[in-house]
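Budget justification aside, the reviewers requested a transparent look at the raw inputs and outputs of the sequence design task funded under Objective 1. We therefore reproduce one unedited record. The lines immediately below are the structure tokens for a 525-residue chain.
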């Protein structure tokens, strides 16, 4: 009978990871865990302590910091696979999971399913001939070297990419491999996994190539399996059920999706909402069930497409997802920097990006040109962003695969601040109260169209007190709203006080906050 070693990459929610490991191993299977080194050390200690006496649990011997689209995701997977191969000699299959996955069949069904066919399950489509990549880079992912992460270091990512294009610094793809692409959620036989590990030790040229490709978790295992395994022994599909919205974001499953999930021709599903506790409980009970029979109808994707199409045509009989999902999620933390001097807030965000791993976005509701990922057009205009503010923010959390997000807003956006601070998510405000000289106010008046180069000095003299009073009024409205987590940092505060506030606001050690607050020019005009 098949014995599965689950390869689990995770970075949050230690209690859920512990429950997931206990559930999967209770059925006689195994699990090897890589817990992201970016996560808090106490969370990893909690997982290790809770699972220390479980012989069917192993941990990657080395933990690394993982970034979306980077080689680190593949390397972390390899570390977990090595631990599983070494620790579980009876494992026949190795199944890739994330902390957001849950079984939608019983262990008995899964083992019988894998016993029925001696194949590897992995999406592996020809990289250049298939249309798996819908938008964005394609050939450029491979022929240029990518040393920086596009999400955490976008300026460096695109600077090095554009420099290579300008100088014609293309590189060849290793001549004897045919690049494949597909989902990272695979299930491979033990022999295949051992061949892959042996390949990684022998073919250093291929390893060097993949280390600097962009999003290698969609190509590395997919390519190597096709290179090493006869085609007749590969089933080009994933055993994990996942869907995407029209905006290219993963569909999240909730408590009322239980029956739909069970009817799909898959063993696991992704992604399960952290708040779907009843769904997780029922699926956990199901996994140890020995008698349930499953009726496979496999209508999930077509049903989802049908209902969303009705919504687009104005014939829907239910609210759109941005109307029904009215919260960002209890487990998420939105940090908002509020500052009238946009350049000051932008400098602070850039410094936070340099020192921490928190995704940070500038004035997304105030500046049309703010750099945002493609979210299916929802980010296209300020009007759309504001109208679908919570949907936009949820999609950004999903895009960056994070529970913590930092954004900038103008103090005049009081309706947005009230909306987000009223959400069930944890919302923090850091208001930077600035000093406004007459010269600054004059420049502000020109930027917003209240004055021009030919405006007489006496008109400006009458106008400036009104503008100054308006800025004071905006700050007073924020204070009068009595937001729960409202902190005030004054432009004149010393570095020690700045570091204290930043440590509280960002929930980071004071030493890190001091590093952020150190530059003399950070809050200068």
């Amino acid at each position: 009978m098949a014995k599965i070693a689950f390869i689990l990459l995770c970075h949050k929610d230690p209690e859920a990871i512990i429950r997931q490991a206990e559930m999967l191993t209770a059925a006689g299977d195994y699990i090897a865990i890589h817990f992201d080194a970016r996560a808090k050390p106490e969370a990893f200690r909690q997982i290790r302590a809770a699972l220390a006496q479980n012989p069917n649990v192993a941990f990657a011997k080395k933990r690394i910091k993982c970034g979306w689209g980077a080689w680190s995701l593949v390397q972390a997977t390899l570390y977990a696979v090595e631990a599983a191969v070494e620790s579980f000699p009876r494992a026949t299959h190795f199944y890739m999971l994330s902390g957001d996955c849950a079984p939608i069949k019983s262990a008995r069904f899964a083992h019988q399913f894998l016993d029925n066919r001696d194949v590897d399950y992995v999406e592996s489509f020809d990289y250049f001939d298939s249309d798996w990549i819908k938008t964005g880079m394609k050939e450029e992912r491979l022929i240029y070297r990518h040393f920086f992460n596009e999400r955490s270091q976008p300026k460096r990512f695109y600077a090095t990419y554009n420099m290579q294009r300008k100088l014609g610094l293309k590189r060849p793809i290793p001549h004897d491999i045919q690049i494949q692409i597909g989902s990272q959620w695979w299930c491979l036989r033990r022999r295949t996994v051992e061949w892959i590990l042996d390949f990684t030790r022998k073919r250093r040229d291929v390893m060097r190539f993949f280390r600097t490709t962009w999003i290698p978790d969609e190509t590395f295992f997919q390519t190597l399996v096709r290179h090493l395994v006869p085609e007749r022994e590969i089933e080009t599909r994933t055993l994990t059920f996942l869907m995407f919205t029209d905006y290219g974001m993963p569909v999240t499953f909730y408590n009322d999706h239980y029956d739909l999930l069970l009817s799909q021709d898959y063993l696991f599903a992704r992604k399960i909402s952290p708040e779907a506790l009843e769904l997780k409980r029922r699926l956990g009970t199901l996994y140890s069930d020995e008698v349930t029979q499953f009726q496979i109808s496999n209508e999930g994707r077509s049903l989802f497409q049908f209902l969303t199409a009705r919504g687009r045509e104005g014939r829907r009989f239910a609210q759109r997802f941005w109307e029904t999902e009215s919260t960002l999620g209890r487990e998420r933390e939105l940090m908002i920097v509020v500052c009238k001097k946009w350049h000051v807030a932008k400098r602070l965000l850039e410094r936070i990006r340099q020192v921490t791993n928190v995704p940070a976005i500038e004035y997304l509701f105030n500046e049309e040109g703010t750099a945002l990922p493609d979210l299916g057009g929802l980010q296209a205009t300020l009007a759309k962003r504001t109208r679908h503010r919570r949907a936009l923010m949820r999609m950004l959390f999903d895009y960056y695969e994070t529970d913590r997000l930092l954004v900038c807003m103008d103090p005049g956006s009081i309706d947005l601040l009230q909306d987000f601070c009223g959400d069930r998510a944890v919302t923090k405000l850091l208001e930077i109260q600035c000093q406004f000289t007459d010269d600054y106010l004059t420049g502000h008046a020109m930027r917003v169209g209240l004055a021009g180069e030919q405006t007489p000095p006496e008109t400006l003299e009458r106008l400036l007190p009104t503008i100054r009073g308006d800025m004071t009024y905006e700050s007073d409205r924020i204070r009068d709203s009595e937001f729960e987590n409202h902190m005030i940092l004054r432009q004149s505060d010393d570095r020690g006080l700045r570091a204290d506030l930043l440590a509280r606001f960002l929930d980071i050690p004071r030493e890190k906050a001091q590093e952020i607050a150190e530059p003399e020019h950070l809050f200068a005009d």
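The mean pLDDT is 88. The chain has 21 helices and 17 strands. Computational costs for records of this kind are itemized in the attached budget.
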